[in-house]
Amino acid sequence: MTSATSETAQPIRVALLGCGTVGTQIVRLLTEQADDLTARVGGGIELVGIAVRRPNKHRDVPAELLTTDAAALVTRPDVDVVVEVIGGIEPTRGWLLAALNAGKSVVTANKALLAEHAGELFDAAGRSGADLYFEASVAGAIPLLRPLRESLAGDRITRVMGIVNGTTNFILSAMDETGAGYSETLDEASRLGYAEADPTADVDGFDAASKAAILASLAFHTRVTAGDVHREGISAVTSADFAAARALGRTIKLLAICERVRDADGQESVAVRVHPAMIPRSHPLAGVNGAFNAVFVEAEAAGQLMFYGPGAGGAPTASAVLGDLVAVARNRVVGGRGPRESAYADLPVRPIAQASTRYHISLDVADRAGVLAAVAAEFAQHEVSIAAVRQEGRANDASLVIVTHSAPDAALRSTVDKVAGLPFVHEVVSVMRVEGEES
Ligand code: NDP
Ligand code: HSE
């Protein structure tokens, strides 16, 4: 499987690790676009090996390329670039470190690995002079990391916020639009190739947290790992939450929010969180449905930028991988290198308890005199300011919805704990952050 070779340069020899949803599309594009890629790179791109788990399953690729020995493939002398689309942390981390230590450039879509070990991988790449590219690891086909790493390198980014997980957006969109059940929609997302091998990585927010760590690291020139990210998934989001959101002209999205924060004493830090949030239906993110992703980037000079497109799936992700492969191959042909890690700012990461957001709290209470006043008193006690209250009677009970002004997470949690213990509060039906509105 060799592309048309250039008269001017040796072909760039590529080892592919993984040939599943994304890998099969990479093989297809490499084959179908061989001549164009050669012209763009200034030399051919030759696939010299493909590591998989079960070679018998892969009847569409030449058998002589297949191997189950990824460890041997990544350091073979006839390999220039390793493209990794297997996923997971081990043994992939060891293979990519071995490749980088041997001077092979690496292109990967593996956000779980990068969100934990980017520093180690960049260090290895730095020592050997190899490239490390990972555009496909965040937001599928959308060119987002290269703008952060390169186009905005002269600006100062203050905030990155968006929808970065296609599977959960697919599920939440279906719950909102059709009232579809959670598990059947997740099955459909897996069938369409959006979900991770273990889909709990999607629904519990791990995948989005990894992506948020990568985005924050690039945006704020600081090493942020997945463990630094406050994470809440969507498994607790119910149809009652959607009904409550709808009643107030809102919908629910799983958001990743990365912020540069300045304290009163001028000390800067980074706050990174992933959680479901209610947003107004008029907000541009409310119209991002299915497996699409969208990310807002705010920078001091550029202002607000929005990136939108397919966030998951084999072909869209392969597009981003191929873009990186062309960049790496061009660097090899001309003898240059891509951008290295930029972590000079080394800002501290702020705990979630100090983060301030607006909240929507829905309570099931007894409908009698003094209830609203007593609930409001708990909010006042914890210095959580109420922005709006809505009450609807139901026989002897009432549904009480409270929307707060911006309040620290810790104060809100203490307030809700106290309110839940009041004798006339039957149930705390839902507590959800509100984003995209004035605080
Ligand atoms: P799949 O599960 O579809 O494919 C994984 C591939 O890795 C399979 O070909 C499998 O081999 C191979 N593999 C697994 N373990 C080993 C092993 N020990 N040795 C050799 N090969 C192995 O995953 P995807 O293609 O969906 O995802 C791959 C990567 O891309 C992940 O990091 C994912 O997070 C990322 N990604 C995926 C997106 C998507 O929409 N799917 C979007 C963006 C990023 P075999 O086929 O023989 O079992
Ligand atoms: N499982 C991921 C998602 C794949 O649903 O967004 C794309 O990174």
TrEMBL record:
Q: Which reaction does it catalyse?
A: L-homoserine + NADP(+) = L-aspartate 4-semialdehyde + NADPH + H(+); L-homoserine + NAD(+) = L-aspartate 4-semialdehyde + NADH + H(+)
Q: What is its EC number?
A: 1.1.1.3
Q: Top enzyme class of this protein?
A: oxidoreductase
Per its UniProt record, what CDD domains does this chain match? Answer: ACT_HSDH-Hom
Q: Domain (ACT): give its ranges.
A: 360-433
Q: Does the keyword Transport apply?
A: no
- What are the alphabetically sorted keywords of the record? Amino-acid biosynthesis, Methionine biosynthesis, NADP, Oxidoreductase, Sodium, Threonine biosynthesis
| One Pfam entry name | Homoserine_dh
- Gene3D superfamilies assigned to the protein according to its UniProt record, in alphabetical order: 3.30.70.260, Dihydrodipicolinate Reductase, domain 2, NAD(P)-binding Rossmann-like Domain
Cofactor entry: a metal cation
State which pathway it belongs to: Amino-acid biosynthesis; L-methionine biosynthesis via de novo pathway; L-homoserine from L-aspartate: step 3/3; Amino-acid biosynthesis; L-threonine biosynthesis; L-threonine from L-aspartate: step 3/5
So where does this one cross the membrane? none
Enumerate the PROSITE patterns for this protein.
ACT, HOMOSER_DHGENASE
**Similarity comment:** Belongs to the homoserine dehydrogenase family.
| Function text | Catalyzes the conversion of L-aspartate-beta-semialdehyde (L-Asa) to L-homoserine (L-Hse), the third step in the biosynthesis of threonine and methionine from aspartate.
This one is known as Homoserine dehydrogenase
Native species of this protein? Answer: Actinokineospora diospyrosa
